[in-house]
Amino acid sequence: MSLAAEMANAADSWLRSLTADQRAAAAYPGPGAGDRERTTWYYTPTDHGGLTLNEQRPGQQQLAMRLLAAGLSLEGYALAAIVMSLENVQDRLESWTRDWGRERGRDPGAYYFRVFGSPGDATWGWRCGGHHISVNYTIVDGRVASCTPCFIGALPAELSLLAGETLRPLGDLEVIARELARDLDQRGQAVVLHRSAISDIVSGNRARVLDGDEMIHMQDLWRGSFTDERLSSLLDQIDAVGEEGSGYGSGDHRVLAITSRPKGVPGSALTPDGQARLLALVEAYLRRFPGEIAGPWLASYRTGSGVADLHFAYAGEPSADRGPVYYRLQDERLLVEYDNTQTNANHAHSVVRDLTADFGMDALAEHRRTYHAAGQQ
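Above: the chain sequence. Below: its structure as tokens.
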């Protein structure tokens, strides 16, 4: 069974399990009519749009999680499940005080599922979103046209466990990058864009990444705007702390802006050891997707010119083993961003974007052209 068919079966089973009222929240017009909502995504603890796990019976929750699992590898699904469960841990670390304007602020049940269009139609899609998770899929003519944006974060990014163990949900994504940045900096290669790490990913929750995009501030990463003065003030404080920690002003943000011509050092300029590290990084990100997606994408980095055109750029102190850090990987198609700066550098974000296919926009446009041409014949 193809991945698109597996997703269609999972989405259909979930939708069929819902009541009429639940379906009203879960189902949305398909690509085209529903694009404004479909391409509106978040990674903050805000309303992501759809039906939450809290609003579902256990059996329905299982079917929703089955849909999420269809869009991730086993490792990626395990990571998403851990991220959801960390809401309980963060609740305790914050002494149960954060509410974000709802009954419970740190809520493992506040993950929203929504299907766009009818599963199995020529064009349809689905989304799972909540704090630190946003998985977005677009299916066109029976194939997966887009698996991005795909955001997975972790709060805390590192947590002490019993018997001297440590939980790091995002694994060595930070360690490998620090090692690579340190080596390049010592060699005098211009990998460091700024000696202070920026306070968030730069692409933010944009529907499409464009040349010159700068970091979106915290207040703009929420659905709607806060009317509660206390909550608005809290967001201002969090944003200010992040900015003070990075020391960034408007000029600094321009330095870190995303450009169509990738910044940093290309893989072609790396030593064999550096190229191996760069390949390890890109593999770690792409392996969050099912094999049908990850396999061909990774093959493009293992054959031919390999990682030669993949650029690595860094912000932070490259000699430091800990502390605030930001980096990106970018080539003509792939954009990866990682930051760990907030909450005393124990709050990590990671995102995978496909600069050629986010939300399947190009595939949808081609489908419409083909459809209209066929209708005119």
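Residues 3-148 form one domain.
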